[in-house]
Amino acid sequence: MDATGCTGDEQAAPGCVPWCTAATMLLGLPGLAVTAVTRADDGWTTVDVVTGPDLQEQARCCPDCGMRAVKAKDTVTTTPRDIRLGDRQVRLRWRKKRWTCGNPRCPCKTFTESLPAVPARARLTARLRTRLGEAVGDELMPAAAAARRYGVSDRTAAAAFTAYADAQLADLDKESGPVEAAGIDEFRRGVPGPARGDGEPRSEWFTHLVDLGSGGTLGLAQGRTAEAGKDLLKGHESTLRYLAMDLSAPYRSGAPAGATLIADAFHLVKLANRKIDDAFRRLSYRTEHAHEELGLPRPLHYMLRYNIENIDPGHLAIIIGTLDGDGDGQQIAAVWIAKEQLRSLLALRITKTHVSPAPSQVRDRLASFYLWCADHQHIPELKTLANTLEKWRQPVIDAVLTGYSNAKAEAHNRTAKMVARTARGFANPENQDRRVRMATTRAARRRQPGRRSREVARAA
Fold it and tell me: Other C-beta atoms within 10 Å of 376: how many?
C-alpha cells in the first residue's frame, strides 16, 4: 500500500517522502507529487503534496541569481487554491523547503521553492488563474460570477482575466496576417463619467475597427472622431484596400488615401426609410380609417418599411390604393418608390446574386434612381436623399461591385453592448476594451495554430 492508501508500489526518491504516482497523475500539477489525500469534515478534500523529483533541481535555484542552493534553512507549508476536481473542492497543502542562497552578492538571502504551476507568493495555482481568465474572457461570464464559482474575490478574478486577456491578445496580434478589408463603426459605451486625471471628460463613445475577413476586432479608440479612426487605421495603412463604414463624414475624412471606401448597404436603406418617416411627419398624413379597417396588419407608415417582395399582394394593393387617393399620399408613394429603386440597386451585390455585377449595370440602376428623384424634386425628402447619395456615389457603387458591407462591425457592436450589460457597465475604458476584444475574437483565437499547446505550457 502506498502513501495515499492505494494498493501498489509507492514511489520515493532518495531523501524524499513516499508519494503516489496515480494520485499525482490525477492531480495534474507539474512538479508536485501527492503524498496523502484526506477528506475533511467541511467537505473539502485536502491533498498533501511535496516538490516532485523531476523539478527539485529547478525549485532549489535562486529566483534572483539562478544559483543552486545547497543549504536548507527550514520547511514551510502553503495552501494555494486550485480548481475543483469533479464535484470536490481541493485544498492543496504544499510542504516545501526554504533555502539559503549561497551567493553572497545576491540580494535574496533566503527563498522558498516555487514552480511554474505555483509561482512564488501565489495564493492561486496558475491553472486556476487561467481558468478564471477563460471564464470571463471566453465564456463571457461576469467577473463577480466567476469569483463566486471558484471561491475567490472579485478583484482576484478581474486581475486573472486581465493577465489572461493581455497574453491572448498579444499572441493574436503577433500571429495575425495583413488586413485587406476592415469596417469602422461606433457604439455608445455608457453615460459620460467624471473627468479623468488629466482633466478630460470620459468619452461616451468607442470607435470600433473590425476585420471583415476574420471577423475579429482590430482595436477600439475612445470617441467617434476622425482622429480616433486615424489612430486605429495607422497600423494597417500599407495593406488595407477596402474600408466599409456608415455615411459618416468624420470617418471618411480619416480614411487612408489608397483605401476604397464602401458605403454600408444597411445604412443606405435605413436612410431611405427615415425619409419616408420624414415625409409622413411633414405632411401629417393620416388615412380616414384605421389600419384594421383598411385590412392591414400594421399602420401604413410601418408597412412601408417592409421590403416590397415581402408584402402580401392583397396588402400591397390596399397600400397603393390608399396612397394614390390624394396628393399627400402620392408624395409619400414617390419616396417609397425611390427607396425600392435604391434597394434594387443594392440587390445587384454578389452576396445577393452570387454573380459579380457589371459596372455599367450598376451605373444604369443608379441613374434610374437619380432620374426618379429629379422628376420629383419638389419633394424635399427626395431632394436631400439624392444629394446625400451623390456625395457618396462612388462608395455606393463600390459597395455593389465588391459586395462588402459593415455587417460584422454592426454585429460586434451588439456584442460589445451585451458585454457591457453583463458587466453592469465599465468605469475603466481599458477593461472594456479587453472584454470587447476577447468577446469578438474568440473564433480567430481558436483558429490560431498551436494555441492549445501554448495554453498547456503557460499553465505548466
Answer: 19
